[in-house]
Design goal:
Layout (H helix, E strand, L loop, with lengths): L1 E5 L25 E5 L14 E4 L4 H10 L5 E4 L5 H5 L7 E3 L6 H16 L2 H9 L5 H8 L13 E5 L3 H12 L3 E5 L4 E3 L2 E4 L4 H6 L3 E4 L13 H4 L7 E4 L8 H10 L4 E4 L19 E3 L11 H13 L10
Parallel strand pairs: 1-2, 1-3, 3-4, 4-5, 6-7, 6-10, 7-9, 10-11, 11-12, 12-13
Antiparallel strand pairs: 8-9
Helix pairs in contact: 3-6
GO molecular function, one term: NAD binding
Keywords: NAD, Oxidoreductase
Protein name: Phosphoglycerate dehydrogenase
Length: about 325
């Protein structure tokens, strides 16, 4: 079995690495592991691969692989969301798995950083710093009884939309700071002690939300799901943080909500078009913090994850994180 892995700047080593760059894996040593340049089309001599591991390859490169790798049986993406692989055009018999769990720690950390930055108005302080101005208005607003609650997570009603493994890592961090966390997912119930509401209760939940955190994947059903109508349901002082996928947000509606003051603030690590174009209006929207899709950074413990996935595959078991 030939397995293609990307030439990434982190550990994807396999057992029994060979000097020529190949490797033998598993009982009998019948698997060959070949590294490929993740930003370039797969070389012709490797289009006979059975397994393709992807990480951060441009969509056009993944689509090219879907067209040319006709023997492919399995695509394992190291991204938390498999949206690029799902849209690439792989045949219906090709198994696609995501890298869910590989980014839980770092995405949760970055989400918390963005949450605290927008709640504590770090963007206002940084802007004032560049102007050599002492932003005393932040102090006054925190001391004012009518607005003091807007500057703290203690007692804040936080809704996490997309309550999967990342949310389960993030929620206790928010709880430790005094937030009241509620999840939104396809199925209502309770997860790790946190109440989770279904889609039928989303609108009512948004109306009682101080901070909305999106961890939604990019799927046809989630495209622009956070639109003007749902944004209008949030209280005017509410804040929004997106570390899921940019395509889930109607950015024009978000811009309008921020400029008009119908939304208190927002922080985005993901945008619909990335890199964000220089002429995008998002750069200059007030009360908006932007980071360049860095929440995940890199998959953690990817080598052990791949080894386990390959072991399951060779044993005829279903790999984890099956996307289709």
């Amino acid at each position: 079995m030939k397995i293609l892995v990307p030439d990434v700047p982190f550990d994807l080593d396999f057992p029994s690495r060979l000097p020529d760059g190949g490797a033998s894996f598993g009982p009998g040593g019948t698997d060959t592991v070949v590294a490929y340049a993740m930003n370039e089309p797969v070389p012709e001599e490797h289009t006979d691969a059975d397994v393709l591991v992807t990480w951060s390859s441009p969509p056009k490169v993944v689509a090219d692989a879907a067209r040319r790798l006709t023997r492919l049986r399995w695509v394992q993406t190291l991204s938390a969301g498999p949206d690029v692989a799902l849209k690439a055009g792989f045949g219906p018999d090709v198994v696609i798995c995501s890298g869910q769990s590989l980014h839980d720690d770092t995405v949760a950390e970055h989400a918390l950083a963005l949450i605290l930055a927008t709640v504590r108005r770090i963007d206002v302080s940084l802007a004032a710093q560049r102007e050599h101005r002492w932003a005393k208005e932040i102090t006054f607003a925190q001391a004012e009884p009518a607005t003091e609650q807007e500057y703290t997570l203690d007692g804040a009603r936080v809704t996490v939309w997309g309550f999967g493994s990342i949310a389960l890592r993030l929620a206790p961090l928010l709880t430790a700071l005094g937030a009241q966390v509620t999840g939104v997912a396809s199925r209502a119930g309770e997860r790790a002690g946190y109440p989770v509401v279904g889609a039928d209760e989303l609108e009512a939940q948004l109306a009682r939300t101080d901070l909305l955190v999106s961890l939604l994947p990019a799927l046809p059903a989630t495209r622009h799901i956070l639109d003007a109508r749902l944004l209008a349901l949030l209280p005017p002082a509410a804040r929004f943080v997106n570390v899921g996928r940019g395509a889930t947000v109607d950015e024009a509606a978000l811009e309008d909500a921020l400029r008009s003051g119908r939304l208190g603030g927002a922080a985005l690590d993901v945008m619909e078009t990335e890199p964000l174009p220089e002429d995008s209006p998002l750069w200059d929207v007030p009360n908006l913090i932007l980071t360049p899709h860095v929440a995940g950074g890199r998959p953690r413990r990817a080598a052990a994850f791949l080894a386990d996935q390959l072991t399951r595959w060779r044993a005829g078991e279903t790999p984890r994180n099956l996307a289709r």
